């Protein structure tokens, strides 16, 4: 961001960069106010680091306040092709899924006990399980938002595992992230990485899904593919 090596970053340059964090303008405004301590509209290196740290806090569900600065959080994520931490690059199938096999077996047992229809659970069936955790409603709302990856208002087996994983993290006092980390995206939901401008993307949801033998039969997939596209 400090391309001229001046040791400082102007408000306009910093704003363009910080917007790539995907946070709302309201949150970014708060971050700026805390980082720009003397209100000059310029950040030195130390103040810029404070801003980055606060972005990471916000992305991981922590309060945007100076009290959060010393809490352990992963580095902030920015959707930008020139950034060293590129989001789309990490969502490839090379990243192992964060849900462990033995945990997945437990989550699958809960999933099956809720009488899924065509391999899917409606929000009404998942809600009692989420509420049973006694977590705050806003946290549970975010868990649902993050786990319903294809936004169809239902959770399949993998999406339910993501929801359970996030609930257990929250119960262990770990913050629920604002956006789903690449490692938590189930392998069945990962899109092949495309090089922008190389060629138009052919809808590949069915072909990539059918290559995973552990997934449900193609008949069920056919019902879901229009939603995915």
Q: Can you walk through the features of this model?
A:
With 229 residues, this protein is mainly alpha-helical. It has helices at 11-19, 25-35, 45-59, 87-90, 101-113, 123-131, 137-147, 157-171, 205-210, 218-228, and strands at 8-10, 42-44, 120-122, 154-156. Among the domains are: 8-68, Orthogonal Bundle (Recoverin, domain 1); 101-187, Recoverin, domain 1. The strands form two sheets. Strands 1-2 form a two-stranded antiparallel sheet. Strands 3-4 form a two-stranded antiparallel sheet. One of its GO terms (molecular function) is calcium ion binding. Keywords: Calcium, Metal-binding. It comes from Haliaeetus albicilla (White-tailed sea-eagle).
Largest sheet: 2 strands, antiparallel
Low-confidence stretches: 81-91, 194-229
Helicity range: 40-55%
* C-alpha Rg (nearest Å): 20 Å
Average pLDDT reading: 80
Reading off the top of the CATH hierarchy, the class of the domain at 101-187 is best stated as: Mainly Alpha
What name does CATH use for the topology of the domain at 101-187?
Recoverin, domain 1
Ordered list of secondary-structure elements with their pairings:
Blueprint: E1 8-10, H1 11-19, H2 25-35, E2 42-44, H3 45-59, H4 87-90, H5 101-113, E3 120-122, H6 123-131, H7 137-147, E4 154-156, H8 157-171, H9 205-210, H10 218-228
Antiparallel strand pairs: 1-2, 3-4
Helix pairs in contact: 2-3, 5-8, 7-8
């Amino acid at each position: 961001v400090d391309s001229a090596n001046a040791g400082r970053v102007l408000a306009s340059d910093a704003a363009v960069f910080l917007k790539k964090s995907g946070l709302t303008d309201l949150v970014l405004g708060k971050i700026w106010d805390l980082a720009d301590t003397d209100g000059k509209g310029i950040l030195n290196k130390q103040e810029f680091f404070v801003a980055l740290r606060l972005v990471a806090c916000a992305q991981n569900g922590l309060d945007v306040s100076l009290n959060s600065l010393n809490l352990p959080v992963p580095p902030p994520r920015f959707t930008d092709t020139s950034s060293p931490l590129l989001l789309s690059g990490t969502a490839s199938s090379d990243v192992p899924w964060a849900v462990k096999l033995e945990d997945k077996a437990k989550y699958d047992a809960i999933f099956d006990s809720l009488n899924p229809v065509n391999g899917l659970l409606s929000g009404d069936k998942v809600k009692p399980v989420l509420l049973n955790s006694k977590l705050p409603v806003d946290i549970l709302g975010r868990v649902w938002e993050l786990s319903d990856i294809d936004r169809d208002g239902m959770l399949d087996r993998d999406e339910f595992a993501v929801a359970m994983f996030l609930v257990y993290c929250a119960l262990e006092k770990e913050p629920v992230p604002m956006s789903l980390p690449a490692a938590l995206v189930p392998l069945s939901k990962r899109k092949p990485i495309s090089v922008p401008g190389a060629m138009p993307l052919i809808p590949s949801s069915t072909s990539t899904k059918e290559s995973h033998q552990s997934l449900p039969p193609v008949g069920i997939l056919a019902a879901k593919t229009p939603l995915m596209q």
